[in-house]
Amino acid sequence: PIHLLEGHYDSSELDELVKFKTKAEEFDFEKYSELAKNPKAVAVGETGLDYFHLKDLSEGEKARAKEKQKEIFAKHLELAAKAKKPAIIHCRDSSFGQKDAYQDMLAILKEAKKKEPKLKGVNHFFAGTLNEAEILFELDFLISFTGVITFVKDWNEVIKIAPLEKIMVETDAPYVAPVPYRGKRNEPLYVEEAAKKIAELKGVSFEEVARQTTLNARALFGI
């Protein structure tokens, strides 16, 4: 569920024209615990911390919104552990290089792992540093890359160093279409562009990246 203090209409994402409307929702632990029991449910999430959209709030409103996010994130991790399902984590800092959301996310995740050592998952649309990736690996979490890596070089080092067994690929469609589809609506089919870029950076074949990331996804989701 999306937990906002009020509804939100997102008219622009990374200067793209895709639009969507998000509703406010209170988290009902028991309701979602029942849903998570369904064998078709392979994960809990996405969940996490997003401080990017808080920049227009007052300092008091920001503090309250962050505390709400952290509270619900911890409960979602508890739900994932209880359901024995992986958690899909979303994490977005307030601005590029400001590592506030990642710092808070990792602190909460470390506490959750102390209580539930078998908790696992993936940080989708990874936007952290190499050090943050290594901490996630230590906590039994994978990292996932989108087509952003085809036109942004910030995560080249992470991709080169991170074990392929710890990496997944995705699109985050309909946003952030990869090269050569920039400016168009992103589609699930374009996931192979992210895999091709990872292969290029690691100096391995596309087929190896496709094979290993597929194995990683199947192992994580139990499919």
TrEMBL record:
One of its GO terms (molecular function) is hydrolase activity, acting on ester bonds. A divalent metal cation 1 binds at E46, D172. The keyword Zinc does not apply. Keywords: Metal-binding. A divalent metal cation 2 binds at H90, H124. GO terms for cellular component: cytosol. The keyword Repeat does not apply. Gene3D superfamilies: Metal-dependent hydrolases. It holds the Pfam family TatD_DNase. PANTHER family: D-AMINOACYL-TRNA DEACYLASE. This is Mg-dependent DNAse. It comes from Candidatus Azambacteria bacterium GW2011_GWE2_46_45.
